[in-house]
Amino acid sequence: MNIVILIQLLLAHVLTDFVFQTKKIVDSKNAKGLASLYFWIHILLSGALTYVFLMNWTCWTVPLFIIVTHGLIDLCKIKQEEKITRFNALEQNASNKKTSTVLFFLDQLFHLITILIAWLYLTSGFNEVIPFVESLLTDKRYVTVITAVILIIWPVGIAIGKMTEPFRKELYASLGQLELNPKTDSLNKAGTYIGIFERLLVLIFILMGQYAAIGFLIAAKSILRISKDGEDDARKKTEYVLIGTLISFTIAVVIGLLTQYIISNLT
Protein backbone atom coordinates (compact mmCIF):
# COMPACT_ATOMS: atom_id res chain seq x y z
CA MET A 1 0.00 0.00 0.00
CA ASN A 2 1.18 3.50 -0.85
CA ILE A 3 2.33 5.13 2.40
CA VAL A 4 2.69 8.51 0.68
CA ILE A 5 -1.10 8.76 0.32
CA LEU A 6 -1.49 8.19 4.07
CA ILE A 7 1.04 10.94 4.79
CA GLN A 8 -0.83 13.30 2.45
CA LEU A 9 -4.11 12.61 4.24
CA LEU A 10 -2.47 13.10 7.64
CA LEU A 11 -0.87 16.36 6.52
CA ALA A 12 -4.23 17.71 5.37
CA HIS A 13 -5.74 16.82 8.75
CA VAL A 14 -2.90 18.33 10.79
CA LEU A 15 -3.09 21.59 8.85
CA THR A 16 -6.88 21.71 9.22
CA ASP A 17 -7.15 20.84 12.90
CA PHE A 18 -3.98 22.40 14.31
CA VAL A 19 -2.29 24.90 12.02
CA PHE A 20 -5.26 26.75 10.51
CA GLN A 21 -7.72 26.26 13.37
CA THR A 22 -7.28 29.23 15.70
CA LYS A 23 -8.76 29.73 19.16
CA LYS A 24 -11.28 32.12 17.63
CA ILE A 25 -12.51 29.36 15.33
CA VAL A 26 -12.73 26.84 18.18
CA ASP A 27 -14.64 29.28 20.42
CA SER A 28 -17.07 30.11 17.62
CA LYS A 29 -17.69 26.42 16.88
CA ASN A 30 -18.27 25.59 20.53
CA ALA A 31 -20.57 28.57 21.07
CA LYS A 32 -22.72 28.36 17.92
CA GLY A 33 -22.27 24.83 16.58
CA LEU A 34 -23.87 24.44 13.15
CA ALA A 35 -24.79 28.13 13.19
CA SER A 36 -21.12 29.10 13.19
CA LEU A 37 -19.70 30.17 9.84
CA TYR A 38 -16.29 29.03 11.05
CA PHE A 39 -17.64 25.50 11.55
CA TRP A 40 -18.50 25.21 7.85
CA ILE A 41 -15.27 26.88 6.73
CA HIS A 42 -13.32 24.45 8.91
CA ILE A 43 -14.89 21.26 7.56
CA LEU A 44 -14.78 22.51 3.96
CA LEU A 45 -11.10 23.27 4.46
CA SER A 46 -10.51 19.67 5.56
CA GLY A 47 -11.90 18.42 2.24
CA ALA A 48 -10.21 21.09 0.15
CA LEU A 49 -6.76 20.37 1.59
CA THR A 50 -7.34 16.64 1.13
CA TYR A 51 -8.26 17.24 -2.51
CA VAL A 52 -5.20 19.44 -3.10
CA PHE A 53 -2.65 17.14 -1.43
CA LEU A 54 -3.95 13.98 -3.09
CA MET A 55 -3.71 15.69 -6.51
CA ASN A 56 -6.19 13.20 -7.91
CA TRP A 57 -8.37 15.77 -9.66
CA THR A 58 -11.02 13.30 -10.78
CA CYS A 59 -11.56 11.83 -7.31
CA TRP A 60 -14.17 13.74 -5.29
CA THR A 61 -15.28 10.79 -3.20
CA VAL A 62 -12.53 10.92 -0.59
CA PRO A 63 -12.56 14.72 -0.04
CA LEU A 64 -16.36 14.55 0.32
CA PHE A 65 -16.02 11.64 2.75
CA ILE A 66 -13.52 13.65 4.81
CA ILE A 67 -15.82 16.70 4.86
CA VAL A 68 -18.85 14.70 6.06
CA THR A 69 -17.03 12.62 8.66
CA HIS A 70 -14.97 15.56 9.92
CA GLY A 71 -18.14 17.60 10.39
CA LEU A 72 -19.97 14.78 12.19
CA ILE A 73 -17.05 14.11 14.52
CA ASP A 74 -16.62 17.80 15.35
CA LEU A 75 -20.34 18.19 15.93
CA CYS A 76 -20.38 15.28 18.37
CA LYS A 77 -17.43 16.78 20.21
CA ILE A 78 -19.19 20.16 20.44
CA LYS A 79 -22.28 18.51 21.95
CA GLN A 80 -20.17 16.70 24.51
CA GLU A 81 -18.29 19.90 25.34
CA GLU A 82 -21.64 21.55 26.07
CA LYS A 83 -22.54 18.75 28.50
CA ILE A 84 -19.20 19.12 30.29
CA THR A 85 -19.65 22.89 30.55
CA ARG A 86 -23.14 22.49 32.05
CA PHE A 87 -21.91 19.85 34.49
CA ASN A 88 -19.00 22.01 35.67
CA ALA A 89 -21.32 24.99 36.14
CA LEU A 90 -23.46 22.92 38.52
CA GLU A 91 -20.59 21.15 40.28
CA GLN A 92 -19.40 22.91 43.43
CA ASN A 93 -16.43 20.66 44.14
CA ALA A 94 -13.56 21.72 41.91
CA SER A 95 -11.92 18.29 42.11
CA ASN A 96 -15.03 16.67 40.62
CA LYS A 97 -15.18 18.95 37.60
CA LYS A 98 -14.63 17.26 34.26
CA THR A 99 -12.11 18.22 31.61
CA SER A 100 -12.23 17.87 27.84
CA THR A 101 -8.91 16.02 27.63
CA VAL A 102 -10.52 12.66 26.89
CA LEU A 103 -12.78 14.30 24.29
CA PHE A 104 -9.76 15.75 22.52
CA PHE A 105 -8.07 12.36 22.18
CA LEU A 106 -11.30 10.63 21.16
CA ASP A 107 -11.89 13.34 18.57
CA GLN A 108 -8.43 12.81 17.08
CA LEU A 109 -8.80 9.03 17.25
CA PHE A 110 -11.99 9.10 15.20
CA HIS A 111 -10.39 11.47 12.70
CA LEU A 112 -7.45 9.07 12.33
CA ILE A 113 -9.84 6.16 11.82
CA THR A 114 -11.59 8.00 8.99
CA ILE A 115 -8.20 8.83 7.47
CA LEU A 116 -7.21 5.15 7.60
CA ILE A 117 -10.51 4.20 5.94
CA ALA A 118 -9.89 6.76 3.19
CA TRP A 119 -6.34 5.48 2.73
CA LEU A 120 -7.48 1.86 2.49
CA TYR A 121 -10.13 2.89 -0.04
CA LEU A 122 -7.61 4.76 -2.22
CA THR A 123 -5.07 1.95 -2.10
CA SER A 124 -7.60 -0.91 -2.32
CA GLY A 125 -6.16 -2.20 0.91
CA PHE A 126 -9.26 -3.42 2.73
CA ASN A 127 -8.43 -7.02 1.85
CA GLU A 128 -5.09 -6.65 3.63
CA VAL A 129 -6.52 -5.56 6.99
CA ILE A 130 -7.43 -9.02 8.28
CA PRO A 131 -4.07 -10.59 7.26
CA PHE A 132 -2.27 -7.70 8.97
CA VAL A 133 -4.24 -8.18 12.21
CA GLU A 134 -3.62 -11.93 12.02
CA SER A 135 0.11 -11.30 11.62
CA LEU A 136 0.12 -9.12 14.75
CA LEU A 137 -1.49 -11.94 16.73
CA THR A 138 0.54 -14.79 15.26
CA ASP A 139 3.99 -13.32 14.55
CA LYS A 140 6.17 -14.30 17.50
CA ARG A 141 8.09 -11.01 17.54
CA TYR A 142 4.96 -8.84 17.56
CA VAL A 143 3.31 -10.96 20.23
CA THR A 144 6.44 -10.81 22.39
CA VAL A 145 6.69 -7.02 22.21
CA ILE A 146 2.94 -6.52 22.77
CA THR A 147 3.07 -8.81 25.81
CA ALA A 148 6.06 -6.91 27.22
CA VAL A 149 4.29 -3.57 26.79
CA ILE A 150 1.13 -4.83 28.51
CA LEU A 151 3.17 -6.28 31.37
CA ILE A 152 5.04 -3.04 31.87
CA ILE A 153 1.94 -0.84 31.87
CA TRP A 154 -0.48 -2.77 34.09
CA PRO A 155 0.78 -5.80 36.10
CA VAL A 156 4.17 -4.23 36.89
CA GLY A 157 2.53 -1.00 38.07
CA ILE A 158 0.28 -2.93 40.46
CA ALA A 159 3.20 -5.05 41.67
CA ILE A 160 5.31 -1.97 42.40
CA GLY A 161 2.42 -0.48 44.36
CA LYS A 162 2.24 -3.63 46.51
CA MET A 163 6.01 -3.78 47.00
CA THR A 164 6.28 -0.15 48.09
CA GLU A 165 3.17 -0.24 50.29
CA PRO A 166 5.09 -0.81 53.58
CA PHE A 167 7.39 2.14 52.83
CA ARG A 168 4.40 4.28 51.83
CA LYS A 169 2.62 3.52 55.11
CA GLU A 170 5.76 4.39 57.07
CA LEU A 171 6.03 7.67 55.18
CA TYR A 172 2.38 8.50 55.88
CA ALA A 173 2.86 7.71 59.56
CA SER A 174 5.89 10.00 59.81
CA LEU A 175 3.86 12.80 58.26
CA GLY A 176 0.91 12.17 60.57
CA GLN A 177 -1.40 11.47 57.62
CA LEU A 178 -3.49 8.51 56.54
CA GLU A 179 -2.40 9.30 53.00
CA LEU A 180 -0.62 11.99 51.04
CA ASN A 181 -2.78 14.94 50.11
CA PRO A 182 -2.75 15.14 46.28
CA LYS A 183 -3.61 18.85 46.41
CA THR A 184 -0.40 19.70 48.26
CA ASP A 185 2.03 16.82 47.84
CA SER A 186 1.67 15.70 44.23
CA LEU A 187 -0.36 15.96 41.08
CA ASN A 188 -3.16 13.42 40.93
CA LYS A 189 -1.86 10.09 39.49
CA ALA A 190 1.33 11.83 38.30
CA GLY A 191 3.53 9.13 39.81
CA THR A 192 1.56 6.40 38.04
CA TYR A 193 1.97 8.00 34.62
CA ILE A 194 5.64 8.79 35.26
CA GLY A 195 6.24 5.14 36.12
CA ILE A 196 4.45 3.86 33.02
CA PHE A 197 6.33 6.15 30.63
CA GLU A 198 9.71 5.53 32.25
CA ARG A 199 9.28 1.75 31.92
CA LEU A 200 8.14 2.08 28.32
CA LEU A 201 11.20 4.22 27.57
CA VAL A 202 13.47 1.64 29.19
CA LEU A 203 11.90 -1.11 27.07
CA ILE A 204 12.29 0.97 23.89
CA PHE A 205 15.93 1.84 24.70
CA ILE A 206 16.79 -1.81 25.35
CA LEU A 207 15.13 -3.00 22.12
CA MET A 208 17.06 -0.26 20.27
CA GLY A 209 20.31 -1.17 22.04
CA GLN A 210 20.61 2.31 23.57
CA TYR A 211 21.65 1.26 27.07
CA ALA A 212 23.42 4.53 27.86
CA ALA A 213 20.11 6.40 27.52
CA ILE A 214 18.72 4.40 30.45
CA GLY A 215 21.40 5.87 32.71
CA PHE A 216 20.49 9.41 31.67
CA LEU A 217 16.81 8.62 32.32
CA ILE A 218 17.54 7.39 35.85
CA ALA A 219 19.71 10.43 36.61
CA ALA A 220 17.12 12.85 35.25
CA LYS A 221 14.30 11.36 37.30
CA SER A 222 16.39 11.23 40.46
CA ILE A 223 17.20 14.93 40.16
CA LEU A 224 13.67 16.04 39.30
CA ARG A 225 11.97 14.04 42.08
CA ILE A 226 14.12 15.34 44.99
CA SER A 227 11.78 16.74 47.66
CA LYS A 228 11.95 20.36 48.80
CA ASP A 229 10.39 19.81 52.24
CA GLY A 230 12.05 19.90 55.64
CA GLU A 231 15.18 17.80 56.10
CA ASP A 232 13.59 14.80 57.89
CA ASP A 233 10.55 14.57 55.63
CA ALA A 234 12.67 15.28 52.56
CA ARG A 235 14.96 12.34 53.27
CA LYS A 236 12.08 9.90 53.75
CA LYS A 237 10.25 11.12 50.65
CA THR A 238 13.44 10.94 48.60
CA GLU A 239 14.17 7.41 49.83
CA TYR A 240 10.60 6.36 49.02
CA VAL A 241 10.88 7.80 45.51
CA LEU A 242 14.25 6.14 44.93
CA ILE A 243 12.94 2.75 46.12
CA GLY A 244 10.00 2.96 43.72
CA THR A 245 12.26 4.19 40.92
CA LEU A 246 14.83 1.42 41.35
CA ILE A 247 12.14 -1.27 41.53
CA SER A 248 10.47 0.16 38.42
CA PHE A 249 13.70 0.37 36.43
CA THR A 250 14.92 -3.06 37.56
CA ILE A 251 11.73 -4.80 36.47
CA ALA A 252 11.64 -2.83 33.21
CA VAL A 253 15.25 -3.75 32.43
CA VAL A 254 14.64 -7.45 33.17
CA ILE A 255 11.52 -7.51 30.98
CA GLY A 256 13.35 -5.59 28.25
CA LEU A 257 16.33 -7.97 28.25
CA LEU A 258 14.05 -11.00 28.24
CA THR A 259 12.07 -9.54 25.35
CA GLN A 260 15.27 -8.83 23.42
CA TYR A 261 16.56 -12.36 24.12
CA ILE A 262 13.32 -14.02 23.02
CA ILE A 263 13.15 -11.95 19.81
CA SER A 264 16.81 -12.61 18.92
CA ASN A 265 16.35 -16.37 19.39
CA LEU A 266 13.13 -16.73 17.45
CA THR A 267 13.38 -18.63 14.18
Tell me what the structure shows.
It is a single chain. The protein is mainly α. It has two domains: 3-132, no CATH class; 139-264. Helix content is 78%, strand content 0%. It contains twelve helices and no strands. The radius of gyration is 24 Å and the shape is flat. The relative contact order is 0.08.
> What is the count of β-strands?
0
Tell me roughly what share of residues is in helical segments. over 70%
Gross morphology is flat
Average pLDDT metric:
88
How many helices? The count is 12
SSE-based structural type: mainly alpha
Low-confidence stretches: none
- Termini separation: 27 Å
Number of structural domains: 2
* Largest sheet geometry: none
Rg estimate, integer Å:
24 Å
Q: Which series of helices and strands comes N to C? A: HHHHHHHHHHHH
| Share of residues in strands | under 5%
Compose a concise summary of this entry.
With 267 residues, this protein is mostly helical. The protein has helices spanning 3-19, 23-32, 37-54, 61-90, 101-123, 129-138, 140-153, 155-163, 165-175, 190-208, 211-224, 231-264. The chain has two domains: 3-132, no CATH class; 139-264.
Produce the secondary structure layout.
Elements: H1 3-19, H2 23-32, H3 37-54, H4 61-90, H5 101-123, H6 129-138, H7 140-153, H8 155-163, H9 165-175, H10 190-208, H11 211-224, H12 231-264
Helix pairs in contact: 1-3, 1-5, 2-3, 3-4, 4-5, 7-10, 7-12, 8-12, 9-12, 10-11, 10-12
